[in-house]
Structures
1.
Amino acid sequence: MVICKNGETKRGKVTVTLERGAMTLVVKGVPARVCDNCGEEYLEEKVMTGLELVVKNAAKSGVVVEVRDYAA
């Protein structure tokens, strides 16, 4: 859902913070579309699906806090 309506989105990379229970996972360099007016970030469905799998696996392995670079 587009919120701004005043800018255009451009390809970029963002940092995403994911939390599940007591776990916090920060993923840097995530590909996204970023509004050049307000900075709102939009992730593609396939990227979101991949991030959901990453957070699920991290939670299973006992991660409490971790910072990672994005890997497609």
2.
Amino acid sequence: MESKQEVLPILRYVILGLIIWNFPAFALVYINSSISSLLSYASYGLILAYVILNKKTGNSYEMLIFGGVYFLIGILVSQEYIEGIYSFYVTVIKYFIIIWGGYEVVKNTSQKELWFFLLIGALSILGNIFLFQSPLADYGRYSGFYLDANNGGLVCLMGLALSFTTLKSLQLFGKLSFTGLGLITLSRTFMVTWILINLISIRLSLKNVKMLVIGFGVLVLLVTYNEFLPVKNPRLEQLAVLVKGGQQRSTGALNEDSRTETWARYYDAILSRPIFGNGYRSFYGNGVAATNFGVHNTYLLIWGEGGILPIFVFLAFLGKLFVRGINQFKQKPYGLMMLVALSLFLMTNHNFMTNDYSIFLLMWIAIQLKPTSTTVRENNMFSIEKR
């Protein structure tokens, strides 16, 4: 019994490292496909082993139902866009292992532990600059283990949200680190969400307004640094024009190849089959739209591929979490902040169903915001006081 209790935390940390640090996908790009497959299957195998040793104590029923209706409707409606039925079944199995087994992993993960893993993940962005150069053309933007600037920005936003309530000795360090590393990604989604999170944090204390000033100062430093580079970063140049006041020209440049233009290419497909959707993988590149790019929007992908039922289940789940996040804001402000970050991220990314660390983070938030008897009692007392 004692040996099992000693093994469980170590096993959980290994799983968190593989998932939160995105090692399988990272290995695919920087090492080779064999190592990537080995790490991927190892992560799912370890999750199953953890459940066997730890036993089941709960489930994310909303995510199980959502995944069931999404995959079932998606495969029944059309198999035209699926490259191989085997890959579909593998994706389905992996998803349900993450939801069913991963629930136990995230349930036993504390706020401090998650903050630490997110910090290491965010620091990999520095490694992307000095230790490993990305083979993917990303125009001077850095994303660390996450291979995409928006994904790296999401990890920084999640860590930033947790930094408002972590150990007092680490709060300022966390805020500065996640802010600086997130800005290095030059992700527009990060910048917009970062502002929203800091505005929300002012409800906790007016002192938090200083983070807005610090963030703007870091951005000015990046823009100034760009002026001395032999080959200037295009996005920093656009931001520099904004800072100097040339708003019309820079805004047009920043909006080139914008997400809204990408989404618009898929609207007709959604409107033509709004009830049952167009089938699994129809909203990826070379699907229903005349483009090589996917829809880059999780909500549109779910609706466009699976129809009205899965998107209703998913939005209802998020809506319930937002209500809980607002009600528990004073006790757990990071819950609402993390929900805002993840919800906006899903508007720019269409790989949620296969993005294990995003699913982990959503389940962790949901578990944290589960109402307890204490929360219910405090809310009832608050409503009585208002009357």
